[in-house]
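User: Structure please.
Assistant: Input sequence and predicted structure:
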Amino acid sequence: MPSAVPIRRLFVALTLCCALLAGTTACGGGSGGTKAEGRTAKVAAVAEPTPTPSASVKRQKLAKTRFVANAGLAAGAAYQWIIKPAKAGKFKKGASGRRFAMIKAGLAGAFTYNRLKAASKNAKGDPTLSKAVAPLTAGIESLKDLPSKLRKGQGTDSAAGIFDDVINKVKGAGKDAGAEVVDKVPSTKQLTGG
């Protein structure tokens, strides 16, 4: 029975620790004053919270940052996989790699639309951005059907022009509101939604 002794010691030590812990929390650890003084001190501590930045200020800074990130990803995807290949003639019949370029353009179009919608939603968190981006919502909505047209190869040059126009307007609105948008090409994994 040599193993029973350490278990007993462990049990006794654990019991003593719990008793000491329960005793210290029950006593309260006051400073020797009366109970009324202790209550007023606690109320005073609750009545004077420490100053913290307001939630609206945090939300505005975060909204601007999110707007820049989402609009930058949209601009990068549109330029890399829609505008640049359209200018290079990759969407014309008989062009080398046309099918793959159209599939990528369709994915990039859907991604761009999604990120621009998110950027538009983020802009609502900042008053300056909200005013600058509000007139662009119709232009962003006009992009909704373009990814399917890009995948099918219908009106690819005009679709690329529309994407370029909307992206440039969003960039301009961001710059006017103090949130400069820089193109950031998303990875293929981001583009496919993974």
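Confidence is low (pLDDT under 50) at residues 40-54.
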